[in-house]
Structures are given as C-alpha cells and as structure tokens.
Amino acid sequence: MRGAVLALTLICAVASPAAAQVADLRSTTAFRVCADPAMKPMSAEDGSGFENKLAEFFGQLLNLPVTYTWFPSGTGFIRKTLQAGECDVVMGYAQGDELVQNTNHYYTSIYGIVTRKDGDLASVDHLADPALKDHELGVIAGTPPATIMARAGLAKDLRGGDLTVDRRVEDPVGDMIRGVKDGTLDAAVLWGPLAGPQVKADPELQFTPLLKETASPRMFYRITMGVRLPEQEWKRELNSLIRRNQDQINAILAEAGVPLVDDYGKELLN
C-alpha cells in the first residue's frame, strides 16, 4: 500500500503545473552544473577536479559552455541548487537517492585501504584481516567500512573523521592520507574517488580496493548524474551520451586515478 501511495504521489507531481514549470528550468544555452567548490579531487572551483573534466567533456558533446553553481555539499545542497533551478545536473551522485532522478551510472567505484607501500599493513586486502588489530586506523564516521570494521572488533583502533563537513575549511580525507604518510596512522579506509587520485602520484603510498569483502554493507557504489525528478527527456539525453562515450569517460577517470570496478564490485577495471 505504501508503494502505491508513493507511486501515486509521484504521478500527481509530474502531472501538476508546478512540476511542469520545474521541468522547463533546464538551460538550452549552457551545461549548468551544481557542485561543491572544495570537494577535491572530485570537484574544485579552479576546475582541477576530475568531475570538472567530465563536465567539460559533456559540455563539448552537447556543444554547450559549462557553468557552475557552487555550494558546499551536505544539508540543503540539492534544495538550494538543483531544485531551485540554479543548475541542471549534479555530477558524481550515488545511485538511489530520492532527492534527484538518477541517470544511468557512468562509473562504479569502491572503498579501499590506503597504506604505506613499505608498511606492516601493505598486504591487507580485507577488513577482517587480524593484522589490522591494534593499529591506528582512519575511517570516515558513518561510511560503510566503519560499520564492518566495528563488527570486526576494531572499534578501539578507529580514528574517525566527520562525514559531513565544509570542505572549504576541513579536509578529513586529506588529513587521513597525510596521517598515513607521516606515520600517525597505520592505514585509512576511504572512498576510492576521494583517495585514489591523491594516492596515485605518491610513491610512498598505495590504495588497495576492497574487492574481497562479502559482509554487508557493500563496498562498491554506482555513480550517476542527478537531475530534477520530472525531467525525463533530459535524463534520456544524458543516458545516451553516457552509453555512446563510456570508453572516453573511463579514460578520464583512470587518468585521474579513480579506481574503477565492474558493476558487481568484483573486478578492478584499471
């Protein structure tokens, strides 16, 4: 019954005049992107993030200039950007969120372990490994690996960082990677798109994807673009671009150092 009520609500929303007005908000003169100005290495106001490069690529495919509405990710982000009509697409959006309509996913990535290449934990590739016990381990609170690590009896070893922060003034992922490098942390378990590009260029560090995890919650997630709920035509247009240009998308991500896995999180693709 609840599903029927939800479906009816969505149908009514699409049919309403207000929804029709929202659907008309998409610009035809620019590829308008909603983004966090300090979500490095994903998005950055200076255009250096790999999602910025992907946005430029999609802008070229659409023959449109790319413009940005910058707003810190977290509470209110979608409401004050996409839903407000200030921009038309959110790059790098996890599949399944009810605040947006998801396009088809354009990559799948995975959590992994950042360690020193010469460290005691360099060979660890799953979170139940006894070698992790009694070591200083960084993890972002509230993320899937934090749950699994706590269940594995590692709670006392965890050094947590906040999940929702203003990245213009705080950088918990970067702080943990620097902690592994300087030895104040023995390892950090982090989201691949945030950690992989930062580790790629460092000869002392490595990122090991958690391909062997079987416990819930899962370690891999499909990443989409988010558009407004009524905008079916816009979603289909983006889906077509993703489908026809997947190889080039993969190349941009691989060049950035984003760990790419298959849709089941079982095989590393780069």
TrEMBL record:
Assigned keywords, A-Z: Signal
Domain of life according to the entry: Bacteria
Keyword 4Fe-4S on entry: no
SUPFAM superfamilies: Periplasmic binding protein-like II
Coiled coil: none
Cleavable signal peptide: 1-20
Domain Solute-binding protein family 3/N-terminal: 30-256
Keyword Ribonucleoprotein in record: no
InterPro entries given in the database record: Quinoprotein_dehydrogenase (IPR022448), Solute-binding_3/MltF_N (IPR001638)
Protein name, entry field: Amino acid ABC transporter substrate-binding protein
Species for this entry: Paracoccus zhejiangensis
